[in-house]
Write a structure and sequence with these properties.
The chain is built from twelve helices and six strands. By secondary structure, it is of the alpha+beta class. The chain folds into two domains: 121 residues, Cytochrome Bc1 Complex, Chain D, domain 2, CATH 1.10.760.10; 183 residues, no CATH class. It has a six-stranded mixed β-sheet. A hairpin with a 5-residue loop joins β4 and β5. The longest helix is centred in the last third of the chain and has 35 residues. It binds heme C. The site of heme C (HEC) has 22 residues, from α4, α6 and α7.
Length: 324
């Protein structure tokens, strides 16, 4: 408790807030135990200090922009992770990032060093900075407490009927889909009875999966590539509610010129889409607009089929444990 309280106070001090703010800060510390788990996790890491630490310790490999193209990256056997990639970074929750920084990444190559000399708060500051480099899941659904992540090879899961159905719908509405586009990574988001300090990644373990309640599911998030005019591939984030309606669709590209132009176009598809309806967004009259209609239909289709594949698995799982 003492440590938690001092964490809050320290974060506030760092933000150079006046002393009177310490009163609400103590209030915050008192409500804290209502939040589940993560006793030592501060509510907010210090972004300014995180930036400084990142530049000192991480940028040589990961680059100033987090892209993974730091000056020493060329000499490494594996490319440093791209911290702007929402699909990769959201597949690790804050706790996992913390442990990766401090203890090294057990699943990674040796090229990613451990930073055991950083203290807890410095490490949380770095986690806060890492989260600022990509679109976190909380951006799509602020109420998310727990989530799952898994890639589904479309047309290869389920029984024969399910497989053919998926491939037929894709062919009809998405055109040609190949390579990694055919294995979308699906983030399935849940709220929990007890709120979490930050969303927890639930591992793919039968017991943990069985604890998730279907009625707590709030939606899906996918990071996909939109094929725009002149076949330009632009990374986008797409969120679907439980009725498969688009609640967010926007670029995750760091180039503001591209992002601005695309986001204005993509905004028009928010609110479209419905479970069971054929995915076809013919809303534009101009030539470029029609290309975007096709491109948006394609990513929507991939997202829906990804979510369908998850739901198939969910049904099988709940039949097995009798919760369906
Ligand atoms: C000497 C080069 C180097 C430095 C310095 C470095 N990294 Fe890395 N990092 C890598 C490489 C290489 C990978 C990819 C490893 C792999 O995929 O096997 C990586 C991967 C990662 C990952 C993804 C791990 C995962 O779960 O896939 C995170 C997060 C990360 N680094 C954070 C950091 C932070 C934060 C710092 C600074 C405190 C840092 N790195 C400093 C080389 C470095």
């Amino acid at each position: 408790m003492r440590e938690r309280r001092s964490t809050t106070i320290r974060s506030l001090r760092r933000l150079r807030r006046p002393g009177w703010l310490l009163v609400p800060a103590l209030g915050l510390a008192l409500v804290w135990p209502a939040l589940a788990g993560d006793e030592d996790m501060p509510l907010i890491g210090d972004l300014t200090n995180g930036t400084r630490l990142y530049r000192t310790h991480c940028s040589v490999c990961h680059g100033f922009d987090g892209s993974g193209a730091g000056p020493t990256a060329v000499g490494l056997p594996v490319k440093p992770a791209d911290h702007r990639d929402g699909s990769l970074m959201n597949a690790r929750d804050n706790r996992i990032l913390f442990e990766t920084i401090r203890g090294g990444c057990s699943k990674c190559s040796k090229a990613m060093p451990a930073f055991g000399s950083l203290d807890d708060l410095e490490t949380w500051d770095l986690v806060a900075y890492l989260r600022s480099l990509h679109m976190p899941l909380t951006f799509f659904f602020p109420g998310v407490d727990q989530y799952l992540v898994k890639s589904y090879p479309l047309g290869q899961v389920g029984n024969k009927e399910f497989k053919t159905g998926q491939l037929e719908r894709l062919r009809k509405h998405a055109g040609k889909v190949a390579g990694k586009d055919l294995s979308p990574t699906v983030f399935t988001l849940f709220k929990a009875g007890e709120r979490r300090v930050s969303p927890e990644l639930v591992p793919q373990e039968p017991r943990r999966l069985a604890e998730l309640r279907k009625e707590n599911k709030i939606g899906y998030v996918l990071f996909l590539e939109l094929i725009g005019p002149r076949n330009k591939r632009v990374p986008v984030g797409l969120a679907l509610d439980l009725d498969y309606q688009i609640t967010k669709l926007l670029t995750t590209a760091s180039d503001p010129a591209v992002a601005g132009e695309y986001d204005k176009r993509l905004e028009k598809y928010i609110g479209l889409g419905k479970r069971g309806d054929p995915p076809k967004f013919d809303i534009s009259r101009d030539k470029i607009g029609k290309l975007f209609d096709k491109a948006a239909t394609r990513v929507y289709c991939l997202a829906v089929e990804g979510a369908n594949a998850y739901e198939l698995e969910e049904r099988e799982r709940s039949w097995a444990d009798g919760t369906f």
